[in-house]
Amino acid sequence: MAFPFSAIVGQDEMKRALLISAVDPRIGGVMVFGDRGTGKSTAARALSALLPPMVAIAGCRYNCAPEEADRCPDQCGSRKTAKVPVPFVDLPLGATEDRVLGALDLERALGRGEKAFEPGLLARAHRGYLYIDEINLLEDHLVDLLLDVAQSGENLVEREGLSVRHPAKFVLIGSGNPEEGELRPQLLDRFGLSVEVKTPQDIEQRIEIMRRCDAQERDAAAFAADWAEADAKIVKRIARGKKALPKVAMPDATLQDAASLCIAVGADGLRGELTLMRAARAYAALEGAKSAERKHLRAVAPMALRHRLRRDVLDETGSTARIDRALAELFG
Amino acid sequence: MTDTLMAARLLAAAPGRLGGIWLRGAGPEREAALALLTGALEGRAVRRVPVHIDEERLCGGLDVAASLAAGQRVEQAGLLHEAAGGLLVVPMAERMSALVAGRIAQAMDAGAGFALVLLDDGGEDEAPPVALTERVAFWCEGVGVAPTPDTNLPEFPSPSTPPVGVAQDKLQPVAEVEGPVSTLSNTSLDTLGTNGAGEIARSLANLSLALGVDSARALLFAQTATRLHAQWHSRDAAEEDLAFAARTMLGPRATRIPQQADDTPPPPPEPEDEPPPGDAESEQEQHDPDALDDLVLAAALASIPIDVLARIGEGRSARRASGAGGAGRKRASQLRGRPLGARPGLPRGGARLALIDTLRAAVPWQEIRRQQEAADAPKRLRIRKGDLRIRRFEERAEALTIFAVDASGSSALARLAEAKGAVELMLAQSYVKRAQVALIAFRGTAAELLLPPTRSLTRAKKVLGEVPGGGGTPLALGLAAASELAESHAARGRTPFVALLTDGKGNIDRQGQPGRAQAGEDALAAARRFAAARTQGVVIDISARPQPEAAAIAAAMRARYLALPRADARGVEQAVSALQFGKAS
After folding, report:
1. Backbone phi, then psi, for B145, in 5-degree steps?
2. Of A189-198, A234-243, B540-549, which has the strongest mean pLDDT?
3. Checking DSSP bridges between strand A54-57 and strand A81-84, what pairing results, if any?
4. Does the annotation mark A271 as catalytic?
5. pLDDT at residue B338 above 60?
């Protein structure tokens, strides 16, 4: 049983980033930097468990929504739908391309001489979350491939004489400790948001972590019940945010703020501005605001830009500090 | 009972909750702990994981050969599944690849319920993958003297339920295995009362902060172990129980030494001679929370292994796995990289079946094979062993550049600064080149591995911030340290390259004694050993007036010699890159 999302102590920025990605999955994945044992995977798991079950074609191996069933490679004959939990796929470090993309179905090929496709982890993660712990240790070509699919929302397999195309829209959550190896900047840039997590350095918070984990271990059901109300509130917030998202206004002043901020910190490429804009809008929707204002922009600027700054071998200042400095200089 | 044995005992009571134990070093204590664990978990599965296990065996999957023979799907169970509720023993854990470690870590997160035992025979700079050490509760020494042989192990005292439910069935569901454990913690909680529990949590939180232990997992492990330890002694949790958790979990994980308000210096770290729990502490029975914390802190400090202590003293973080991912490299070429085409072979040992090629090889023989069989043979594809093809991939071996820098004398600072600059420049591109960089500095009477092989610029910056220079020139020691590092990584499938920055004038010999003549001889001997191992390298002399000594060393090393007077970091980096990778970056 997953740990209740609302019971996670501290880690406000990570929780905010996850909620924003839940409101607007198009923002792209979330990259979580931090040491081990800081609750990265707990938070991701908790979020996927929190989300209300989704409607999918019953028994479909691709988690197809009813309206996209026409594109399903299985051509699901039945239109019967079922409620299934939002998938959370934990990608193992040593996963091979076959497992991720899907491959020729061995059993059917050998036993019956049929050429059939066996969907991989990407199909299983469709409409849910794909979590990769220690993404910095994953093979480069796999990371390339994952980011590509995450962006296009579609998995195209052209190998072993197969030609299969199936939808694969998921929120990619990567985690890693930069001290154990870094990600290429080009790859980092393709993550929508990034957050840095640390274990709280405050006694009371640490005690609270122990208290809650202990309570959960002793009686998971009762613990979940205690937090059910708080969790339900978050679910409501996400649902309201999703609904309001298309209507949230994006005033010119905010766009200007976004552009000048990106210039000030020297974020490479246009992706920074686009993500900043989308994240500000999603955050405004989450907060129930009618338009995205400067305060929303400020709240999301570090997570949207932190990983896009050009790294200067000689500048010791951390990215977060550079963004904070720029924010203070520009907006006071 | 020593701490290691006590840890094993508690682990047997709650394998799923405590995750496992990391036993450093081989010795009678380790054997005793293993025997205790297997004895306590009698009836449960005990599985050993060889370092080179393949994924199919570990996680289970299709048994291709059996499937083909039977003409239907034959699954093989994975080791991780078989070990559920029992023991998973990893010998030579320091050599385990990140791939296997990742799988095991994932299974543990999913609640596999086995106790992981990491047997670590590694040296000072080797450690099992962090993904695993993070998930095991106890970090203990296994080298201790032989404990008193107690064949009649005392039963774990428990009010009602036996602590370790003797399993009738190997494949008992995890929930059932965990059952007695929750009873355990419930009962101990009852006796503790909420006040006691709060005090323990506060002490542990204080302690973990003071020692710089940031993982919440360690904190939760410590909480569980404190309770179990108290219950083992049939009492409310007291400072001895906290001290036990501090010694076996928090102390070894320390990343900093707390400043103590009083003047008690940290006791000398002698892990073997730890006082048995309750020896020193029992005289002080006050319940002043501050005094309690001090006692526990002292216990934790005493348990910090010497090498960790030394690193903390130098401002470096605790042991990190440097060997992760190494051992499996060569074989990994059957899994990933650029595809090369198929060749005949059996899909095992990590090799993947090349299906289309296998079918293509089998097709021409179908008619003949059918005729050979009886008329009523079932209609199916006839694939023989000889048809099987496996995939091959090309994977470039990872390169490792080792900078060995002479940090002695007056030119030390300049030379070190340029070497550090070169390290950072190389790291900035290491991702593209699939290369790691390490830095050894030698001065005074020792050579020191300042930066263990890494691809991380962040880490390099952290470590290389303050490096002292000056003193004598132990060239022989520096060279020996560089070849040792190079050889140990060559053994793991990497391609090392040593860049030695020196003027070649050693004046400290192998024993650390001054004396130019002996030092020179020792340096040449070390250089010849370097040559014998066929490691690639270069000697760079960046002194203003290059001297023949460095060239002589280079000749003995069978390495290139470069005199680069007034070279800067970029110059050094370009020279090394050009020699190592064939072209300037």
Report:
1. -65, 160
2. A234-243
3. antiparallel
4. yes
5. no
Per-residue confidence at A73, pLDDT binned at 50, 70, 90? confident
Q: Compute the distance between CA of residue B337 and CA of residue B466 in angstroms, rounded to an integer.
A: 39
Taking contacts as CB-CB distances below 8 angstroms, the residues of chain B near A199 are 214-216
**Which residues of chain A neighbour B100 with C-beta distances below 8 Å?**
94
pLDDT over 90 at A283, yes or no: yes
Tell me the whole-structure pTM to 2 decimals. Answer: 0.69
Kindly list the distances between the CA atom of residue A257 and the CA atoms of A248, A251, A289, B572, in Å, as whole numbers in the listed order. 17, 10, 18, 44
Query: Which residues are CB-contacts of B121 (< 8 A; sequence separation ≥ 6)?
Result: B25, B26, B91, B92, B94
> What's the average model confidence in pLDDT over B126-147?
81
- Nearest CB partner across the interface for A110, out of B216, B381, B455: B381
CB contact (8 A) between residue A313 and residue B352: no
- Residue B41 near residue B84, CB atoms below 8 Å: no
Q: Which of B110, B186, B458 sits opposite A178 (nearest CB)?
A: B458
Given a cut of 70, is residue B369 above it in pLDDT? yes
Report residue B388 as tokens. 């099987």
- Interchain CB distance below 8 Å, A218 and B182: yes
Instruction: Give φ, ψ of A259 to 5 degrees.
Output: -65, -45
Per-residue pLDDT tens over the stretch B48-73: 888 777 777 788 776 666 766 666 66
What's the rounded Cα separation, in Å, for the pair B345 and B386? Answer: 8
- Shortest CA distance from A159: residue in chain B: B356
Q: Tell me the chain B residues in contact with residue A93 when contact means C-beta distances shorter than 8 Å.
A: 98-99, 101-103, 106, 131
- In sequence order, which ranges of A245-287 are alpha helices (DSSP H)? 252-265, 271-287
Q: Which residue's structure tokens are 């095992």? A: B348
Give per-residue pLDDT as tens, B381-401. Answer: 777 777 888 876 655 567 888
Taking a C-beta distance cutoff of 8 angstroms, is the pair B54, B350 a contact? yes
Task: Give the nearest partner residue to A203 out of B130, B205, B217, using CB atoms.
Answer: B205
Contacts with B431 from chain A: Cβ below 8 Å = 182-184
Q: Do A213 and B205 touch (CB under 8 A)?
A: no
- What does the alpha-carbon distance between residue A224 and residue A217 come to, in Å, rounded to a whole number? 11
Distance between CA B366 and CA B24 in Å, rounded?
Answer: 56
Asked if the model's pLDDT at residue A108 lies above 80, the reply is no
The nearest CA of chain A is from the CA of B525 a distance in Å of: 36
A106 and B355: CB-CB below 8 Å? yes
Say whether pLDDT at B332 is over 60. Answer: no
Among A45, A124, A212, A271, the one annotated catalytic: A271
Query: How many helices (H) and strands (E) would you count in chain B?
Result: 23, 15
ipTM: 0.79
- pLDDT beyond 60 at B328: no
**Residues near B1 by beta carbon (within 8 Å), at least 6 away in sequence:** B9, B147, B276
Highest mean pLDDT: which of A86-90, A155-159, B428-432?
A: A86-90
A13 pLDDT more than 50 = yes
**Coil/strand/helix, residue B91:** coil
A135 chain-B contacts, CB cut-off 8 A? none
In this complex, the residue of B62, B353, B456 whose CB is nearest that of residue A179 is B456
Query: What token pair was written down for B188?
Result: 């101990």
